[in-house]
Each structure stands twice: as structure tokens, then as C-alpha cells.
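Can't attach files on this board, so I'm pasting raw text. These are the components:
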Amino acid sequence: MTELQIWTYILVGASFVLYFGIAWWARAGSTSDFYVAGGGIGPIQNGMATAADWMSAASFISMAGIIAFKGYDASAYLMGWTGGYVLMAMLLAPYLRKFGKFTVPEFVGDRYYSKTARIVAVACLIVISLTYVIGQMKGVGVTFSRFLGVSMETGLVVGMIIVFFYAAFGGMKGITYTQIAQYVVLILAYTVPAVFISFNLTGNPIPQLGLGSTMADGSGIYMLDKLDQVITDLGFKAYTMQNDSTINVFMLTMTLMIGTAGLPHVIIRFFTVATVKDARSSAGWALIFIALLYTTAPAVGAMARLNLVNTIQTGEIGAADSNLAMDARPQWMANWEKTGLIAFQDKNGDGKIQYYNDGALSKAQADLGAAEKALKEAQDKAGDTAAAQAKVDAAKTAADAAMTKYMTDEKTKKFADLGWKGNEVTKVDNDIMVLANPEIAQLPNWVIALVAAGGIAAALSTAAGLLLAIASSVSHDLMKGIFTPNISEKSELMASRIAITIAIILAGYMGMNPPGFAAEVVALAFGLAASSIFPVLMMGIFSKRMNTAGAISGMLAGIGLTLLYIFWFKGWFFIKGTEMSPNVAANWFLGISPEAFGTVGAIANFVVAFVVSRFTPAPPEHIQHLVEDVRVPRGAGAATH
Amino acid sequence: MLDRSAKAYWAANVRLLSICLVIWFVVSFGFGILLLDQLNTIQLGGYKLGFWFAQQGSIYVFVVLIFFYAWRMGQIDRKFDVHE
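---
Top answer:
C-alpha cells for the assembled complex are below.
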């Protein structure tokens, strides 16, 4: 066993002992403990737990990688996934806390005096949470398999068992305290390597400031200017400039913001604090703890990109020995090559690696390679070789055309003149940047192991929070609220534990056999939350006139339109080959990508709800009183059912 | 009388809310996206200003905004005698 593996076992093992200990100590005795942690969590603790609940594998593992490769365009994630808390703190959290119930559908059902509305809300909630949890389970599997040296399947099963135990027995109370511990682990794991790397590159140990500082090499050049210059020299687009269309950046940011404010597993966290006042400030505390990671991420992304480029392009472009030799590549590259998440191919046979933007050449070459492979398979199996041969010919023509363009294109000609025949880093996955970062910067093994523990903490905490949201809506909204109202408290707890079990098995199965839609799932979850839950809650508080018919038709219109648009470009239920139109900007409605479409769905929800409610009877008087009561802080008792 | 006071309380809340949401929109969608190119001509240390708002500044403003809202609402609650 290597030293790194020993460190990983120690740190991951110790953190698990801690989580289990806490879950046991704070186990749920009553339904109130189970759903809202007994209702007595302080705003700072709740903020910390919310932050851990919120920052999933996507925030911890993927986001900095997206920033590293997209630069400015990835700002949509930074602003979107933080700005939603402003909306939540001002438009939803205090009023839902005053309302004082256990779940989001319960509010919808009571406010719109309709069991149908409650069922529609439960359906939205389950789809949102389940799609989201699948991605988390996969994140758990990937992290375990890389650092513990087990297969992806084994890693996933271990993760499922662990999540099951503390989500099922601890309930909200156990999860809240576990998440506080997980927050501490994940934020340390994120910032410790960032501090080292920032100090190495800029001499400034604070990553947020290091990003805006000058290089430590004495050149006096700002880090970001240096990065812009280095990558534009290699033909990439400038890091600090916008490349995506303005409308798409705008709509994606808005979708992520209102999706954040509408995510049920985050909203229910605000039911656990003692008062309305605490609910307001708790959102602020949550955002402070989130911002610690979110303001570090741009530095991690930019510095990782610079380190990666500098590792491969070691000197002046075109000078002798200015590129990393294939045989001399560092250990971290070899480690990640094994996982298939980074790949090299010496296209011009010079024994060195060239990493640059070659226009469309690499893609044409990759297509040709794939077509040739398919032809070989067809020949081996005596399949339809004629069709495969035709595809190879077409791909060859395309690759030749790309090569001709490459040799003559003004931007790429200088690379062609050097004898470079295409980008030789044929694959570099966004998701490896954070995990590989400490290795790239040659930090000690205990730091690398700490990052592994942090990644697992991030994925587990969010998975547990989502499972709890699913369990609450099944046992509390569907069984207790609608189908079996006379259920005892004990049976209700049992039902929610069964719901957790089923959800984990389903999520584990989907995580093991992903239908090929990891990133799309996240987009779908946010788009759905933005187009269904957020508008219905907001109108419930801010419009006394909003009624049952308006709420239900609004939710259905918002979710329906968003789903239709996503499926139109991504295939029905994400099945490849069933898409109605290629997923390219030219085909999009007003240039809005499927990921960014939730805002349009939300607008549809608001408009339909408004129009329908004007043509149907106003809500009864007691509902109008309920809305007035929710708007005033005084008299908020403990959350009840 | 009681009803008028409840109405005035809600109006004060909505007014504060509107101010906060305008700031929220201006720093993120305004400075970070719509005015990006104009602000990028201004340099803030090693940052282009538009880029800074998009990746750092708007997040700091969001945090301040929530606490400001919570603090002002506390004052308004007490003024209208609806605090807990």
C-alpha cells in the first residue's frame, strides 16, 4: 500500500467515524426530530448545515474544473448558485418558517386548499430530488474508486450503505449535526490546497486575493493577464473574456438562481430554525459559508489552468525542448490516465506533448478514429461493412478538409509550420481538476487525502439531504397527508425509512448504469425547480388573489414547457437518437440552451397562473387571512403537522 | 387601525425588498453580464472590473445584502410591533 493510500484510509475513515458518532448521538426519537430536527437549530449552525447540504459533488468536484476551461463564461455558475440565496432570504424563507409546517408540498396544499395541488408539488419534488441524487451517488462512486483503489461499483455500494444508515436513523436532527462536521471537512479540504497553490504562484496565501495579484516569479505581471496571454498564444480564447452569447449567460444565471431558491431540500432547512428572524439571517450565514468555497473556486480554476499549461508548454512556443516529453510526464498524469479522464496521443510522433487549440482538427481526427474503429468491428463481426466504410470515407474527407484549413488558417498556421498535427491532449475531463490539483502542485500526500475526504463529504451530505426531502414527501405528504391520514407517528417514521431505502436502491442502480446524462440531470433538476416550485411558493406569499386553479395550471405549464424543451434537444427521457433537433445554438429558441431554459418555464408558470386565476373564483376568506398571517413574524410557533 | 398597520408593515417590507433586489440585479446581471465589456476597460488591481464582479464581487455583495435585509427587517418588525 502506498503512503497516499494509507493517508486516504486514515482521513476518510476518521471522518466516517465522526459522522456515525454524531448520527448516533443525535438520532431521531420523534417525527419532529426526524423532519425538522426538533425545530431548535441556531442560525449559524443551520447556515453551516445548509452550506454542506447545498455544496454537492457538483460544487466541490466539478465547478472549478468548469471555470478552469470556460473562464468568464462559467461565472453563471458562481453568480447563479449564490444569488439564489438572496431570493430565498427575502422572498421565501421567513414566510415559510412562519407558516410552520414540515414540508414544501404541505405549504402548497394548505395555501391552495387543494390535495391535487399538494400531489402535483410532491411529484415535482420527487423528480427534482431523485434526478439530483443520482448524480451525487455517482460522485461518491468515482471518488471512492480513485482513492481507495476499488472498482466504481464497489465504491458505489459502500457509499449507498453509509448514506442509508445516517439518513434513515438520524433523520433531520442527525443529518443537521453530521452536515456541520461535513462542512468543516469539505471547506478545509478545498481551501488548504488552494492556499498552498496561491502562495506558490503569486506569493499571496489568500486565494481570493492571489487571483488578482502579480506572479511570484518577479515579472510583475498580474496572474490573470499572464493566463490570458499564455492561453491566447496557444490559440485558446481569452480567459477573462465572454465567448458564450450574452442572452445565454444571462438566462443560465437566472435559471440557476431561481432554481436554487426553489430546491426543496434547501428550503426545508429553514423550517429547522427557532424563529422567523433566525430564518432571515440563517440564509445569510449559509451564504457566508458557501461563499468561502465559491470565492475560492475562481482562483482554483484559473491557477489549475495555468499550472496545467505550464506543465505541458514548458517554454517559448516553437523553441527546442519547450514541450513536455511524453516519457517524462508526471505521476499524476499517469494516475488519471488509468481512469480514462485524461488522455494523450503523440500525433506528430515527436515524442513530446503539444496542448493547444487547433480549431476543428482534433474533433475531425477523433471522428475519423471512431469511424475506423467501427469499420474494424463491423469487419470482425461480418456486419454491415459497406455502411461502415461509407462512414469512414466521409470522416476521412472531413478530416482532410480540416487539415487543409488548419495548414492555411491564419490562426493555426504558425502551429502547422512548427510541425504540430493536432492537439495531443485528446481528453481532459473537467471533473479531475480539483481532485488532481494538489498533485499537479506537488503538495504533500496528506493534502491529497484530505481532498478525497472532502469530496466524499460533499457528495454524502447532499445525498442525505435529498433523500430526506424525498422521504418526507412520501411519508408525510402522500401517506399522512392524503392516503392514510390516521397513520401513527411510529408507522410514519417507518414509512419514511422505507422510502429512503427504495430511493437509495433506485439512485444506486441509476448511478451504476447512468443513462448517459450526468450534466443534463443537474440542468433538469434546476430547470424543474425554477419552473415549478419557486413560482408557486412566491405567488402563495405575495399574491392573495392566487387560487387553486392558477397554482396547478401554472406548475403544470412551467414544468411541462421546460421538460418539452429539454427533451426536444436531448432526446425523450434522454434516450439517445430520439432528439427532435440537433442541440446547437442555431436551433435554440432565442439562442437559449436547454440548461438555461428554466427561466422561460418560470415566466410561463407566472403568466399562466395569473391569467387562469383571474378567470376563476378568488380564494376563500380564511386563505386570505392565512396569507396575511404568514406575512407577519409574530406568533411563529414550532413547526407542526 | 390594526389592518392599516398590517398594510403599512407589508408596504415597508416590499419597499425594502425592492431596493435590495435592484442592487442584487445590478451587481450580478448588470455589472457581471450586461455591462461586462464597458467595465472590463477599468482595472481593479489584477482584475478587470467586469470579470471581478462576475466571479467575486457580486458574491460579496449578496452576503452583505442578506444581512442588511435581516437587520432592517428586524427594525421594521419592532417599529410595527410585530416582532417575536
